[in-house]
Amino acid sequence: MRFLLAIICCKLLRLALRLLGRGGTALPGQVALRICPDMLSRLSRGVRVAVVTGTNGKTTTCRMLEKMLRDAGEDCFANRSGSNLERGITADFVSNADIFGRPRRRLAVIECDEAAFRRVCGELAPAVCVVTNVFRDQLDRYGEVTHTLGAIREGLDRAAHATVCLNADCSLTASLAADAPDRVRFFGVDAPLGGAAAVSDAPRCIFCGAQYEYDYHTFAHLGGFRCPKCGYSRTEPDVAVVSVGALTSEGSAAEVRIDGELFDVAVGLPGGYNLYNAAAALSAATALGVERRSAVRSLAHMESGFGRMERFEIGGTRITMVLVKNPAGCDRAIDYLRSLSGECTAVFCLNDNAADGTDVSWIWDAGFERLFDAGGAELRLIVSGERADDMRLRLKYAGADEGDIRVLRSQDELLEAVTSAGGEVCILPTYTAMLPLRAALAARCGRKEFWK
Amino acid sequence: MRELRIFHLYPDVLNLYGDRGNVLCLKRRLEWRGLGCSVTEVPMGERARLSEADICFIGGGQDFEQGLLMEDLRGGRAQEIKSAVEDGVTFLCVCGGYQLMGHYYETAAGERCPFIGALDLATVGDAERMIGNFAFETAFGTVVGFENHSGRTRLGGGVEPLGRVLRGSGNNGEDGTEGARYRNVFCTYSHGPVLPKNPAFADALLASALERRCGDASLAPLGDLAEREAHESVLKKVLG
Question: Domain locations in chain B?
Fold first, then answer.
């Protein structure tokens, strides 16, 4: 009885919010869970679920996996709104169910926050779990990376029957294999990519504390690691990017090996880091039974996700929005800015709300200095957001002249500057700074909101 | 030309909250004034003569990595740090680095881990973390920053607090003190990093080191527009 009541409340509340023009999923889910605490496990009965967690790349990996499944003729649903806590996930399962709680579609791709992963795995009994990577992220909220790792490990323990897809190149993520030895699928990149970061999140062996040695680096602490003391080292991945071809502003070309078979792939999203997301999605899709060649083909026709390398064209201005949340992700966005040539307007929007992390000190761990190396694009700098002053200070110490940095405090000023800039504009916002800005830009382009 | 040598201790393991921004800040503020500066990174296991340093910086780390340090400290580094402190070398120690300078850290379960003992202070772990933007008043003006620690630090008779808390928790959330001062050692829970937004604090460190090295602590004033505005905006946020 409570179950049915919860479903009705959740559906009505979500409908009401939409009629008000709001896309909220958290509140309806929260209300439903209050009425019926075990409803997520009941709603997911008979649904095969892939759960994707990790610090960076969750959303894009989910979009890729979803595309692979749909292209293969599987009817699946996903929590596309980015509401990746238990309450948001619950709301999406309610939407998938009829009024009696029976699921319509029997396959789901679910993005899950690291801190919520433990509970969500216990409820969903997933068929596949993907851990993209583990980096330091919002220390005020998650605590240390070893805590994040511990939370993910507990989740995997609860997902006792899942195939576990792990990043072979991340010494933190790969260490989870010890807990699920017989059901792990590793993915990784066999070739060097962007390079190591100034600050490594995992310089020392997670098992014995000795300093890792590397055959090669891809990004940050990812790469061909090996502990000289205890022998813990990278495992040869089941799904591997074996060589990287052209990386352009439209996408990447690479050769991929899936369970021994080689394929040429074109990934229709720019940024070398998306090769990791592609490998993660390929390992999950093939674990779910998608034919290899079909999964590879799907990667060529990706649309960028919500604020993730998303493009807007307004007048003569080409705007790229790259969501940034932590040093590792921000360094990849800086790589992208570095790859541009000519003149470019670079906009940094730093907020410090709970969803962004209230501690903005992470901006000092990202390598903004590289923006001012010789040979890159000529940047016109704009800072905005609630912590615009912190961002300006960071750029000053990175090498910018403080007089050259425009501080735009209101959304209207910022929109006006961005849309009238002309040429190439790259916006790096934190999560809550992204939402209103993206909505405004999407409206100008006549694009739909995520819940439509 | 006046010149300072900055040693960044354990940058490989104590680097949690943008700590290297403090070193960058000191370096830039010397460069902008036409003064010389060299930065030496001293990772774990590497020997370096701390007696040659003018400023030593120690940041905060994760428990996992901080644990690894104990062996290194026992291997002679602790004694070296103590001598440098007594010798008047300028130190900036933040968060975990601050706790390391004390006698010990006692976990909530009562397990005691002996630390360097260079300063008369000790820290006891607590389940509840003290997290958030905060501000405190010091001899060189108001300092703003972000704190995130579960350890509660109490100062002994031999050290002074760095400042008095205006808003936030500080050393232990009870006695209103924040950080510690002893000879030329400056300790604080303010990470973020603390120096760029608090240029007077940065310059106080530089002055103490220049005085010791060259007998001339004078520092030409800098514009500090971005520094002042960043400082003001956080102060406004903290005081509400």
Answer: 3-239
Domains along the sequence of chain A with CATH: 2-301 (3.40.1190.10), 308-444 (3.90.190.20)
Confidence band of B68 (pLDDT split at 50, 70, 90):
confident
- Which residue among A144, A199, A204 sits closest to B20, beta carbon to beta carbon? A199
ipTM surpasses 0.90: yes
Chain A environment of B64 (Cβ under 8 Å): 144, 146, 206
- CA A434 centroid distance within chain: 14
Segment holding A266, helix H or strand E:
strand A261-267
- Give the pLDDT score at A276: 96
State yes or no: pLDDT of B208 exceeds 80: yes
Element (H, E) at A406: strand A405-407
Helix axis angle, A86-96 relative to A117-124, nearest 10°?
30
Distances B119 to A143, A327, A403, B182, B207 between C-alpha atoms, Å = 28, 33, 42, 7, 21
Positions in chain A short of pLDDT 50: 450-452
- A53, A121 Cβ separation under 8 angstroms: no
Q: Do A389 and B18 touch (CB under 8 A)?
A: no
Architecture of the domain made up of B3-239 = 3-Layer(aba) Sandwich (3.40)
pLDDT reported for residue B240: 83
Integer-rounded Cα Rg, in Å, for chain B is 17
Query: Which of A229, A389, A409 would best serve as a mutation to test chain B binding (most B beta carbons within 10 A)?
Result: A389
CB contact under 8 A, B132 and A358: yes
